Each structure stands twice: as structure tokens, then as C-alpha cells.
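Consider the following assembly input.
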Amino acid sequence: MDFLNFLQQLINGLSLGSVYALIAIGYTMVYGIIKLINFAHGDIYMVGAFIGFYSVTLLKLSFIPTLILAMAGSAVLGVIIEKVAYKPLRNSPRITLLITAIGISLLLENGFRFIFGPNPKPFPEVLPAKIIYLGPIRIGLIQIIMFTVSMVLVLALQFIVYKTKVGKAMRAASFDTETAQLMGINTNNTISFTFALGSALAGAAGVLVGIAYPRIDPYMGIMPGLKAFVAAVLGGIGVIPGALAGGLMMGTLETFTKAYISTKLSDAIAFSILIIVLIIRPAGLLGKKTNEKV
Amino acid sequence: MGGIKKGLNKKSIITALILILVYIILYYMIKTRVINPYKSQILIIIGINIILAASLNLILGFTGQLTLGHAGFMSIGGYTAAMMTLKFHLPFAAALLAGGLFAALISYLFGLPILRLKGDYLAISTLGFGEIIRVIIVNLDFIGGPRGLAGIPKKTTFTWVYVITVLTVIIIYNLIKSTYGRAMISVREDEIASEAMGINTTKYKIIAFVIGGFFAGIAGGLYAHLIMFLDPKTFGFLKSMDILIYVVFGGMGSISGSILSASILTYLPEVLRSFSDLRMIIYSILIIVLMLFRPEGLMGSKELSLNTFRKLSNTGSLKRGGKK
């Protein structure tokens, strides 16, 4: 029984973690290329959920078109934010960029609150709330879809980053932006593309979470955003597989602490583990230690 | 304190006179209700925010350590001071001091292992620290837990806040001008180089962290005895962000910039209150626009002082260099 419970929690944790991973990858890609902690990323996830909500309620779309629309909408938003708010500050101190990102985050939260009201909206049922029994273990169909969609998207991303020309440009730009520019890579377009990809993944995560925990509100992005960021750092910020591992770890850790230790303390434990990991491995689990230049 | 010069020179006497004059004017304006109670409350909150901004500026602007958990220290100080007056009936000054010292102790214990981390890793750990403090407070029942701590007597007055704000600014300003301050600035400029020059970088980072934590704790105590109620939700991530925005907006490494921006950014949302729902939208757009057009903050790393005014009046019509 204990072991079964353990498996059950593991499954819950992995499906939650896959969503964290989707958001964390966006953080990590943006960080890798312009060294910005994009605090507005959690809010792009919120926007994705809202786009999903309205494409289901107003446009009466089914799951896959909703997902695609939310991803496209989030990607466009991500690129606009990058062009308007981050691009002019490319040569400024990084902290300025950080404050601008916080400003964007506040703007999205309060703008959406102003337009759509502060109350949570129930997300309509897009997928049947079926439960599959694997022996004594219960798995929600939504959980399976959450995990599968996330993994498919991560694999697609991996393909884009490692097998295509634009992916090569992204890797080059994140390795050394100036040199990449000298080699004839249009770094501005590459950075925009990175934002588009990251934001699309966050938008997808927003729709998935909207379906799984059927309510959305303008502030829903803050906590998952923070946790996904922690996940990205945990895995070693700037490393895509690290973000995936970190996200899955955060998800399972959270469900396990909720199940076995304390519901109320779960956030504190997650952050404590982060601090301990960082003290032992200051560059994150999969991060490379960089030598400082003098 | 290394930086306080022996004997008073002319400049500090003038500064002291101006400060006393400002105090007397403000005090009588509050007493005669020229400044109504609502506005005097805002004035007090501005003072508290100046303490917070100046203390974070010491860590971030002068020592160059990005921390995102400053509200955590504020809440430690606030809760400690409130408990001191509620349970032990200590006088207000002692309660404030206890709050500040406890916040300083926690920042020492936390800073010791964590300040080895650099840049964004330090930022995320301090962010985590702030969240941990908040969750712990929510789970401690004897200080009210999620319901918050109510029934704190109102002891924070304009005089208290004014005196403590002035003291904080003077202490931090003198600290920066001392050898300690120069060591801290060298850590900000280049950690490796300053280490090579024989500066114990960890020591100075921790000193900045502890002093910053101390003053944040004092500010928390003042806040607790002003609002008379402590809600753990107040001290979340967003509060830390607010303080961070004061510092960057005013200019990192400029104490007068922190004073200016904490005043403007505390007052601004109150002015915008007539726009009700649009208030926070306007606030966030203003932050973005100002960052885009003045990335170094209002003051950059310059200080506003008597000399600035003297220079301005001397140069008269001469303007600063135009755009290139």
C-alpha cells in the first residue's frame, strides 16, 4: 500500500513537474541568450491560459486548436515584449533589464485584472475528466495528456535547438553573442525567436494547467513562475535538459512534501532544498562551472 | 564608526540645521492639520520606505550583491518588535532595537553560507529565503499564523520615523565614506581584484548584509507599530520587488537617489488613487518607461548634496552637457 501510494504521488508529481519544466525551459533559454531573469515569463503563462480560456468559450475550439492558438498568441506577446521593452536596454546594466521585466510583469497582471476582473474564472471542460485505473493506481486522463504534451513539446524544442539552422544560431548566440554577430548571425532575430519559443511553451503550460486545475485568474502566474524559475536554477540555468530535470524534480518534490511531510510547509521545503543544492553545487545540478576571467 | 569626523565642520552644522528646520516645519504642519492625518500617514510610510531603500542600497548599490528577499528581514523585525511590545511590554525603542538585532542575527546566519554564491544564484537564494520566512511565519501559531498578528499598539509617530530615518541615512552615508565603505565598493567593482588587494570580500559582504538586515528590521518594527496589524502576505515577493524598484529607480549607489525615489514611488500610487483600477497599470507603465529612458536610475551614482546646489547656483545659466 505504501509503495502504491508512493507510485501514485510520483505520477502526480511528474505531471505537475512537466508543467514546471515547460515554464522553466523558457526561463532558461532567455537567460542563456541575454542573461535576463525574465520575471514576466510567469505572466506569459497566465496570458496563455486566458487565450486558451477564450478560445474554448468564445471560439468553441477543441483541445489541439486551443493549444496551438494559445502557443501562437503567447509567442507573439513574448516577441512584442522583447522588441518594446528589452531590446532598447540590451547594453544597459542587467539590473535595469530586471526591473523592466518586473514592470512588464506588473503591467500584465494589473492589465488583465483591469480587463477581465480579479475573480477566478472556471475553465470549461475541454477534455473528458476520465480516470484510468492501472491496478490500484488512479491516473487522470488529463494528467497523462499534460505529461505527454509537455514531453512532445520538449522533444520538438530539442529538435529545433539541435537540428535546425536557427537552433544552431541560438546556440551560437547564447555561447557568445558578439562573436555570433561577427559570423553573420542576425542575433536580434535569434533573440526574438528564442523569446517566441520560450513564450509558446509557457502558453502551452498555461492551457494545460487551466484544464487540469480548472480555474484561471490574473495572478495565477506568480507562484508557478517563481517555482519554475527555481527549477531552472536548480537544473543549472541556461541548460535546457537542466530545466527539464529541475522542473520534474520540483514537481515531484512538491507533491511528495505535500503527501508525506506537510501541506503548508511544501513551498518552504522546496526553497530550502534549492538553497542547499546551490550551496553544494553553486552552478546547479547540470550547470557547467565557468571559470572567472580576471 | 570610521567615517564620522572629529569635531563638527561647517557643512555638517548646516546639514543638521536644515534637518531640524525641516522637522519643525513638518511637525507644525501636521500639528496644525495643514497636512491632514491621511497625508501624514503617507509621510510616515515614506520614511519607512526610505529606511528600507537605503538599507537595500547598501547591499545592492554599494556592495553589488543582488538580493530579492529584503521584505523577509523587514517581516522578521516587524514580528519581533511587535511581540516585544505585546508580550514583554518593552518600551518602543527597545522593541525596535530587538527587532533590528534579531533581523541582523538572522541575516548573519543566513548570509554566512549564502554569500559565497554570486549574481543570479545569490538572487534566487535570497528570493527563496524571503519565501521561506513568509511560510514559516504563516505556520507559527503563536504569532498569529495565517490570520496575522493583531492588536499591536500604535506607537510609530512622525517624530520617531523622522529621527530614525535621518539616523539611518547618516549612518549608512558615513559607513560608505569610511574604509569599510570603500572596501564594499571595491567588492562591487571587481571582486577578484579586491580580493587580490587583500580585502576579505566575504567579511565585507556579510557586514553589508547584516547592517542592511538590521535597518530593514527596524523599518519592519516601525511599520508594525504604525499599521497595528501584521499580515504575512504583506511581506511576500512583491514587497521585496517594491524595495528593489526604489533602489534601482533612484540609482544604485546613490543614497539621495534612494530617498528621492522612495518618496516619489510611495506618493505616486496615492496620487493615482483617483484613477482607482488604472492606478497600478499607470504605475507599472511609468516604471517601464523610466527604465527605458533613464536606465541608470534618477540619480545614477551621484549624490545630491549642498555642493550640488552651490554648483547649480554658481554655474547659473550653464547647462549640463547636451546630448551627443
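The longest helix of chain A spans residues 2-34. Ask yourself how this observation constrains the way the partners meet.
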